[in-house]
């Protein structure tokens, strides 16, 4: 029998928790059959490595005679998987060949868990995290749940970081006696969610330099969730783990096998340069789940050992590149540029970031969004992706979840709304 609400006293954080935006968006197609989602950041079911995974699973007993892959693992993750991950990252031509170490890596339930644990161990309610603007809206929701305030890093008209404006912002925080509340900075180095931009070397160096000039040496997190999903070649910019500019900063590099291998396995990782911070992350993770699925880790580990992971990422990069071209062609052929819409064709990842005329409000519940639902298509309103939830004329579209014919149909429905309003 359900108890009356007044019998429960929630914590301060519990009282402020709200349904995440992603949950709301994912529920719409279930509640309204026939709606096509350009919102879901899912991968393509048809591209999932079913045969590869079944082959690996069938051979796990041969390579693991004591069946340990079906046993509990460790909190930090399988040693061989951590070693293979570090070796792979160190082998990338743009990285220092000693930038990543197995002992610095923690395997998590997707890189998002590492992001949550890292933030949880750093921040108190009321603290500040510097974020790109726009930024990963699920992280912004995560910060809200922890009562941590995101502050957007200023950008120019092209979307690049504006370091003059950033320096002014940091001075303002100092004058307001808030600079000490800045506990971390969150960057998305490669095919960012939602902008699909890759940070240039000049931007990464300029960001570190601006923080140093302000006397702000705080942990810097680089989220590289889409790095392996480059359509052609991997972006040539080194990560913060290889750049001398960041040697003074505690650093956490977040990567994942979720997007480039299989989302259902939920295997991500973090590589932390700061021993004490990593220890705290491991303590928090140990209290939370005692370790990520050992079975899922064993599958990824074997794909790396057998040198089958790299071929898979190349195939997937090409696959999503074709889907991106498909969506771009539909948008371009519909002539919505003539209506004042703008976007840059991505070079990797799963997302398109679109700017509408300022007169078009794309927020949920507004005329444009309601008309899209009426026409049978949904998207992620861009205001969710800004630290201050402004401006209101951006949209995030995803190419991943829908098969090609439905992707085309959803795009045509979307463009129809643009022309009708």
Question: What is shown here, in short?
Answer:
With 421 residues, the chain is an alpha/beta fold. It contains 13 helices and 13 strands.
Describe the structure.
The protein has 421 residues and is an alpha/beta fold. It folds into two domains: 5-48 and 311-420, Aspartate Aminotransferase, domain 1, CATH 3.90.1150; 65-309, Aspartate Aminotransferase, domain 2. It contains 13 helices and 13 strands. The chain has helices spanning 12-16, 21-31, 50-63, 79-91, 110-122, 137-145, 163-175, 201-213, 275-288, 294-305, 309-333, 367-375, 404-420; strands at residues 36-37, 105-108, 128-131, 149-152, 182-187, 220-223, 251-256, 268-272, 342-343, 351-355, 377-378, 380-381, 394-398. The strands form three sheets. Strands 2-8-7-6-5-3-4 form a seven-stranded mixed sheet, with helices on one face. A four-stranded antiparallel sheet has the order 9-10-13-12, with no helix packed on it. Strands 1-11 form a two-stranded parallel ribbon.
Summary tags:
2 domains, 421 residues, Aspartate Aminotransferase, domain 1, Aspartate Aminotransferase, domain 2, alpha/beta
Task: Give the arrangement of secondary structure elements.
Elements: H1 12-16, H2 21-31, E1 36-37, H3 50-63, H4 79-91, E2 105-108, H5 110-122, E3 128-131, H6 137-145, E4 149-152, H7 163-175, E5 182-187, H8 201-213, E6 220-223, E7 251-256, E8 268-272, H9 275-288, H10 294-305, H11 309-333, E9 342-343, E10 351-355, H12 367-375, E11 377-378, E12 380-381, E13 394-398, H13 404-420
Helix pairs in contact: 3-10, 4-10, 5-9, 7-8, 11-13, 12-13
């Amino acid at each position: 029998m359900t108890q009356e609400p007044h019998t429960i006293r929630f914590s301060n954080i519990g009282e402020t928790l709200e349904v995440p935006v992603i949950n709301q968006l994912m529920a719409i197609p279930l509640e309204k059959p026939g709606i096509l989602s350009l919102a879901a950041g899912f991968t393509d079911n048809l591209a999932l490595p079913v045969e590869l995974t079944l082959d690996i699973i069938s051979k796990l007993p041969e390579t693991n005679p004591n069946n340990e892959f079906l046993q509990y693992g460790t909190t930090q993750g399988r040693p061989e998987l951590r070693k293979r991950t570090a070796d792979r990252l160190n082998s990338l031509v743009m990285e220092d060949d000693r930038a990543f170490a197995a002992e610095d890596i923690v395997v998590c339930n997707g890189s998002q868990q590492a992001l949550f644990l890292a933030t949880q161990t750093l921040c108190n309610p009321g603290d500040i995290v510097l974020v790109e603007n726009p930024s990963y809206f699920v992280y912004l929701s995560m910060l809200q749940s922890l009562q941590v305030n995101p502050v957007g890093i200023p950008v120019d008209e092209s979307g690049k970081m504006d370091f003059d404006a950033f320096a002014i912002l940091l001075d303002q925080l100092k004058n307001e006696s808030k600079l000490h509340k800045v506990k971390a900075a969150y960057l998305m180095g490669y095919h960012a969610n939602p902008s699909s931009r890759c940070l240039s070397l000049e931007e990464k160096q300029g960001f570190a330099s601006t923080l140093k000039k302000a006397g702000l040496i705080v942990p810097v997190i680089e989220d590289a969730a889409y790095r392996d999903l480059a359509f052609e070649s991997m972006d040539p910019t080194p990560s913060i783990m290889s750049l001398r500019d960041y040697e003074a900063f505690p650093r956490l590099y977040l990567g994942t096998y979720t997007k480039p291998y299989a989302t259902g396995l939920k295997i991500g990782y973090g590589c932390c340069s700061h021993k004490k911070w990593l220890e705290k992350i491991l303590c928090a993770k140990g209290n939370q789940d005692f370790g990520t699925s050992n079975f899922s880790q064993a599958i990824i580990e074997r794909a790396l050992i057998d040198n089958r992971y790299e071929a898979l990422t190349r195939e997937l990069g090409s696959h999503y590149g074709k889907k991106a071209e498909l969506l771009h062609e539909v948008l371009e052929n519909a002539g919505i540029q003539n209506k004042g819409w703008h976007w840059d064709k991505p070079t990797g990842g799963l997302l398109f970031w679109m700017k509408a005329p300022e007169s078009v409000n794309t927020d949920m519940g507004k005329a444009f969004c309601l008309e899209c639902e009426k026409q049978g298509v949904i998207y992620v309103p861009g205001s969710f992706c800004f630290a201050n939830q402004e401006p209101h004329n951006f949209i995030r579209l995803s190419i991943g979840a829908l098969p090609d014919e439905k992707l085309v149909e959803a795009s045509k429905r979307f463009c129809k709304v643009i022309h009708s309003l």
